[in-house]
Structure formats: C-alpha cells, structure tokens
Amino acid sequence: MTSLKLNGQGLGRIVKALRCTYWGLKAAYKGEAAFRQELTLAFILFPISFFVADTAMHWLALIVVILLVLVVELLNSAIEALTDRVSTELHILSGRAKDMGSAAVSLALLIAALVWGVSIYQAVRPYW
To answer: Exactly one of 49, 69, 73, 108 is catalytic; which is it?
Structure first.
C-alpha cells in the first residue's frame, strides 16, 4: 500500500514547511496587532538579554520565554482564525475557545515577566 504524501518527502518537504512558516509569520505580522507588539518587545529584549544574563543557560532561558510568548500568540491567532472560519455567529464554545487561547497568551506573558523580572532584579541587585 502506498501512502499519499501531500507535503512531499525529504528536502522538498522541508522547503515546503519553511515556505508555510514564512507565510504564517507574514500573516500573523500583517493581521495580528498583538503579534506585532510582542515581536517588537522581542526585538527590544534580545539585545538587553546579553547584559542581563550571567551564563549561557540564563541567556537561553531569557530567549526561550520570549519565543514561548510568540508561539502561544501564533496558536491563539490560529484558534481565533479557525473559529471565525467555522462560524462568526456567537456561540458559547467559540467564545470559550477564544477565551482559553487568550488565557494561554496571558500565562505565557506572566511566565516571561517572572523570568525577566527575577533576572533583571539579580542583575541590578549588586548596584543597590
């Protein structure tokens, strides 16, 4: 039995996946104000991370939590788009899905704020 692989195999599949990634990021940037704001924050925090982190693992943690926020925002945007695609009428389950996506973004932002807050506190504490 032969399986039908719509996305291809090998290098062709990787190229298609990268193309889809580009389209997804482009769509999020063009259509989602929250994603643009969080991406701007990521660009601001990235250079600051080199001054705040005292080890490579600490730096990695600072970057990972920023990326976590972006990933969760992309998933939230996908949930919202799919929910609206299925139906734009008000429905309790549609609202619940969108609210849960929003809650996930809020929790990711809270995690990032905690990690960055403690890191900045530790970085400036010796100067107090």
So the answer is: 73
* DSSP code, position 9: S
Q: What is the pTM of this model?
A: 0.88
Please enumerate, by residue number, every residue annotated as part of a binding site for substrate.
Answer: 13, 34-38, 73, 102
- CATH number of this structure's domain 33-125, picked from the four choices 3.30.1360.70, 3.40.50.150, 3.40.718.10, 1.10.287.3610: 1.10.287.3610
d(CA 22, CA 10): 19
Q: What is the pLDDT of residue 4?
A: 58
**Residues annotated in a binding site:** 13, 32, 34-38, 73, 80, 89-91, 98-99, 102
Residue 73 annotated to the active site: yes
Task: Give me the residues of the chain with pLDDT under 70, please.
Answer: 1-5
